[in-house]
Design goal:
Elements (H helix, E strand, L loop, with lengths): L12 E15 L5 H11 L5 E16 L1 E2 L9 E2 L3 E3 L3 E10 L5 E8 L5 E6 L5 E2 L3 E9 L1 E7 L6 E7 L8 E8 L5 H8 L5 E8 L2 E2 L5 E2 L4 E9 L2 E7 L5 E5 L6 E10 L2
Antiparallel strand pairs: 1-10, 1-13, 2-5, 2-6, 2-8, 2-9, 2-10, 3-4, 6-7, 7-8, 11-12, 13-20, 14-17, 14-20, 15-16, 17-18, 18-19
Length: 264
């Protein structure tokens, strides 16, 4: 078990109900990606969302991967920024759009030679090379708000309720899991047979049904899909090695897991 720098919060699972509405946005090239998303979301009247980026060419793509602890009590950190130039392509990425346009995004991408890489996207230093459409879920009634987290020492998203503004939509929940929660059984205890599980986070190493594993103290993940109670993920560790597959065995949350559960 990792020892985080601050006192453990007694609320290990945070859940806020909301409604999810499918949405399609057009992103403009030539803007930093965070700005392009902010403009598209504002034009659509969206303040909170889960968005998927698929097959998007970039003039520049910047990201970080997990790194060793920085020596200030925190259990892990981020690498220096890695940047890919013209010819880079976002293969798939998922992001939470939170309060005031805050973004938390993990994804898979390739450089100009086609080598697959993964990490925590830096949208403020990423630019698309052409206009593109993306799909996702507009959230009504809940939002992720970023703020300091005493337990981990990081600024993190946590779900907060908002007044409902729209009718219709699908029943959904924004969820945050704190460190040392076992991801798969915890999610299974929260979901129903038809619940769609979307989200990202970090684990204390990743264990897959194939036998592949990434060591800790931190490996970032993006949930790619599910097969019943099994979660299919992509993951990257400190060496930059990318693994994809079905989680198996114990996979404990390292810093956070931020999920959208759609119950239909």
């Amino acid at each position: 078990m990792l020892i985080h720098p601050g006192p453990a919060d007694r609320q290990r699972i945070q859940v806020v109900p909301c409604r999810a509405h499918p949405v399609r946005l057009r992103l403009r090239a030539g803007l930093p990606l965070d700005r392009a998303i902010a403009v598209a979301a504002r034009n659509a009247g969206i303040t909170a969302a889960w968005l998927m980026l698929e097959d998007l060419p970039c003039d520049r793509l910047s990201f970080v991967i997990p790194a060793p602890p920085p020596g200030d009590g925190r259990v892990a950190f981020y690498s220096d920024t890695r940047s890919l130039g013209t010819g880079a392509r976002i293969v798939t990425a998922g992001l939470h759009l939170g309060q005031s346009g805050a973004i938390h995004a993990h994804g898979l991408w390739t450089d100009a030679t086609g080598i697959l890489q993964m990490g925590h996207l830096r949208p403020e230093a990423t630019r698309l090379s052409r206009d593109a459409h993306i799909n996702g879920w507009h959230l009504d009634g809940a939002i992720f708000r970023r703020g300091p987290d005493a337990e981990t020492g990081f600024p993190l998203f946590r779900p907060r309720p908002l007044p409902r503004r729209l009718s219709g939509g699908l029943p959904a929940r924004l969820v945050r899991l704190r460190p040392h929660m076992d991801l798969v059984p915890t999610v299974n205890a929260l979901t129903r047979a038809r619940t769609r599980i979307l989200g990202l986070g970090s684990l204390i190493g990743t264990r897959l049904s194939s036998g592949d594993r990434l060591p800790g103290p931190a490996a970032e993940i993006l949930i790619l899909g599910q097969d019943g109670a099994r979660l299919r993920i992509a993951s990257v560790g400190q060496e930059g090695t990318v693994r994809q597959g079905v989680l198996s065995g114990s996979n404990m949350v390292c810093i956070t897991a931020e999920l959208l559960l759609i119950d239909a």
